[in-house]
């Protein structure tokens, strides 16, 4: 704890010297670590941070739409603003918009409530990226999600998965053994299966070296499965 507060005091002193006198080689030697790269929060501003590179101290500015939290990796040690808790530090957020991008850095929906794509903005340029198969972009949590978690915002999971969960299931079938989340084989796809959650389908991937055993509706190793069939 004493080390932390001592370093904080050093940072405050360095910040004052940087703003008042400019940067000098003497100040550069004040980084706690002389090798590698380390970052530290600015005491007042959430969109700035201190960077130590092999003992050299610089004051850095996060990109537009980004803030510093010490663990963000969206771009240059900063994280998306909606993912950062600034505490008492001030967050200066003024949108610099460009086509498809509210901020220069960010993640956005492409406008559909059930889209399997999303928009990633970097330096003001918008890139359309796909979700993993079976997922749809959830703008509320800023990442891809199960489509059945998006029903309340207008998503139809069956449209994403291409499968409708049956209303009734044979109680003696393999599918029924997995109630309340019955499973089904996906026709034409040996590497994925369907599990129904509250009447909506989810696509489950077995993995590169596994396939679906239709007799048990479980994922098994590919080699052992084909050896068993022989």
Automatic annotation (TrEMBL):
The lineage of its organism: Eukaryota, Metazoa, Ecdysozoa, Arthropoda, Hexapoda. It comes from Sipha flava. The keyword Glycosyltransferase does not apply. This is Protein obstructor-E. InterPro entries: Chitin-bd_dom, Chitin-bd_dom_sf, Chitin_bind-dev_reg. One of its GO terms (molecular function) is chitin binding. Keywords: Chitin-binding, Disulfide bond, Glycoprotein, Repeat, Signal. Gene3D superfamilies: Chitin binding domain. Residues 28-88, 98-157 form the Chitin-binding type-2 domain. The gene is LOC112687224. Residues 1-20 form the signal peptide. GO terms for cellular component: extracellular region. It holds the Pfam family CBM_14.
């Amino acid at each position: 704890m004493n080390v932390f507060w001592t370093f904080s005091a050093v940072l405050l002193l360095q910040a004052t010297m940087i703003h008042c006198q400019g940067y000098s080689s003497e100040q550069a030697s004040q980084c706690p670590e002389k090798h590698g790269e380390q970052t530290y929060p600015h005491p007042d501003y959430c969109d700035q941070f201190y960077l130590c590179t092999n003992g050299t101290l610089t004051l850095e500015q996060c990109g537009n739409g980004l803030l510093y939290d010490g663990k963000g990796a969206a771009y240059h040690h900063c994280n998306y603003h909606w993912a950062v808790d600034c505490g008492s530090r001030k967050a200066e957020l003024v949108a610099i918009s460009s086509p498809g991008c509210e901020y220069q850095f960010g993640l956005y929906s492409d406008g559909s409530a059930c889209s399997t794509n999303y928009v990633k903005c970097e330096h003001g340029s918008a890139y359309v990226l796909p979700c993993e198969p079976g997922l749809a972009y959830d703008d509320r949590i800023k990442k891809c999600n199960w489509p059945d978690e998006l029903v309340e915002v207008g998503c139809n999971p069956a449209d994403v998965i291409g499968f409708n969960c049956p209303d009734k299931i044979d109680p003696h079938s393999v599918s029924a053994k997995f109630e309340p989340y019955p499973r089904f084989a996906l026709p034409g796809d040996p590497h994925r299966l369907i599990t129904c959650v509250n009447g909506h389908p989810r696509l489950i991937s077995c993995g590169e070296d596994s396939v679906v055993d239709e007799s048990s509706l479980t994922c098994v190793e590919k080699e052992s499965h084909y050896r068993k069939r022989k």
